[in-house]
Amino acid sequence: MAEVKEKFLKHEEVVEESDEIDLIDYVNVLWKWKGLIIGGTILCMVAAAVISLTMPNVYRATSLLLVSDPKFERTDFARLPSIDTYVAMIKSQAIARKVLEELGLNKPPYQIALESLINGMVSVAPIRGTTLIRIDVEYTDPEKARDIANAVAASASELNKALNEDEAVRSRDFLKAQLDEISLTLSKAEQELLAFKETSEIAVLKKEIDILLKEKETIEQGFTGEGKVGTQAGLLEIDRAIEEKNIVIDTLTKKLGSEKKILELSRSISNDSVMQDIVKETSNLPTSTLLGLQIKNEQVNPLYMELEPELVKTHYSLESLKARKVALIKDLESTEKRLIDLQKELAQREMKLENLTRAYELTKEIHKSLKQKFEEARLLVAAKTQELKIVDPAITPKSPIKPNRKANVFIAGAAGFMSLILLAFVLEYTFRYKTDRSIKSHLN
After folding, report:
1. Fewest beta carbons within 10 Å, which of 7, 166, 241, 266?
2. Which of these three, 360, 382, 403, is where a domain ends?
3. Average pLDDT, the chain
4. Which pLDDT score, from 0 to 100, does residue 227 have?
5. Are 428 and 311 in the same domain?
6. Distance of CA 283 to CAs 57, 215, 280, 297, Å?
7. Most confident segment among 33-47, 271-285, 357-371, 406-420
8. What is the pTM of this model?
9. What pLDDT does residue 76 have?
10. Phi-psi region of 225 (alpha: psi -120 to 50; beta: other; left: phi over 0)
11. Helix/strand/coil (H, E, C) string of the chain?
12. CA torsion angle for 299, 301, 305, 310 (degrees, to 10)?
């Protein structure tokens, strides 16, 4: 037991220290499971062979269509269909339904569905760099595959011819209807444009706006003086003048408050001999008493009389400035409002005139283009368009394209071989893992 334990521990140390597994281990694993790998591979190949043998043979028939150019050169209004257009037409339900009915493939024993024919059996693709279209049909019956390929090609050629026979006529009639309609639209647009030009009075509006602009300039000059323009500056100047008048009024009011309107004057009678004589004649007072008398009189203060008119004048000037400011602002606002209204009206009328003119010019261009195209369509009524011609009808295929039995057997063998190798390593790992755990469990 000790020996086994020692060997096992040595084996673990070797495994832990080694970063790579020796190639001989792989060979030993493959050799150990060689029976499983070889037998399984053979079994896969046999199964693939059996399945391939039970699968029906599928044949492919191919026909070629040529998209021929028209004899007359087409113009831009009648651009030629692209190759992709013809490819889509060939794979249409109309052609598939016609082929099924012609060949009786929608009846027993075939019972081929419309979707199966379009999406599974028939494939259509252009050949790059050419105007050829390839039609491939895959079916279990080689003769039916040939018949279907030829029937699809013939039906596509007939359908294209039928569509092209009346293409130019329908194009001409369509253009004629469009031309008649656009002619009425052009006439209506022209009448609307002329009528609006007569009634819009755009020139009158522009003249009124010029007059209002001059009036506004005159009003602004009223704020700041002749030769100066600027509403804000003018208002500031008037406000400054009003403020100055208020300061002058305050100053004059204070001065008047400190002055008396009537001045009282007194003087001794002794200085007035005339008054002495009058008093003596009218009274019996002694001379000493008369000399003590005072004469009082009143007179208007000349400074007060000078300041009062100046104050009144300043008040009048202040009110004039305020009235002037209010009147100028009112006139300016009225003028600006009228100017804005006229400018809006002018802009609306000019925009409408521009829209009507643009609509008229656009309609005129469309009318000119349609008229030219209509004349070209009249010349192309008898012109031939592109044709689909069968250049290479399908023939009966001799060999099936699938199933490729050899390839199936080889692929199955290769896939089985690789899968079984992987399985062998998985089994070997599982076996060793269980063995190692069993030994560890036993040693513990």
Report:
1. 266
2. 360
3. 76
4. 43
5. no
6. 174, 81, 5, 20
7. 357-371
8. 0.42
9. 46
10. left
11. CHHHHHHHHHHHHHHHHCCCCCHHHHHHHHHHCHHHHHHHHHHHHHHHHHHHHHCCCEEEEEEEEEEECCCCCCCHHHCCCCHHHHHHHHCCHHHHHHHHHHHCCCCCCCCCCHHHHHHHHEEEEECCCCCEEEEEEEECCHHHHHHHHHHHHHHHHHHHHHHHHCHHHHHHHHHHHHHHHHHHHHHHHHHHHHHHHHHCCHHHHHHHHHHHHHHHHHHHHHHHCCCCCCHHHHHHHHHHHHHHHHHHHHHHHHHHHHCCCEEEEEEEHHHCHHHHHHHHHHCCCCHHHHHCCEEEEEEECHHHHHHHHHHHHHHHHHHHHHHHHHHHHHHHHHHHHHHHHHHHHHHHHHHHHHHHHHHHHHHHHHHHHHHHHHHHHHHCCCCCCCEEEEEECCCCCCCCCECCHHHHHHHHHHHHHHHHHHHHHHHHHHHHHHHHHHHHHHHC
12. 180
Average pLDDT score over residue span 304-315? 74
122-126 and 132-139 strand pairing: antiparallel
In a domain, 128, yes or no: no
Structural domain count, the chain: 2
% of the chain residues with pLDDT over 90: 9
| Residues 274 and 347 reside in one and the same domain | yes
- Tens of pLDDT, residues 59-82: 999 999 998 876 555 554 456 678
- Residue 33: predicted pLDDT: 81
Q: Say if residue 133's pLDDT is above 90.
A: yes
Using 50, 70 and 90 to split pLDDT, how confident is the model at 290?
A: low
Backbone angles phi, psi at 407, to 5 degrees: -65, -40
> Which of 360, 382, 405 is at the close of a domain?
360
Q: Please report, for the domain that includes residue 274, its CATH number.
A: 1.10.287
Least reliable range by pLDDT among 17-26, 202-211, 433-442: 17-26
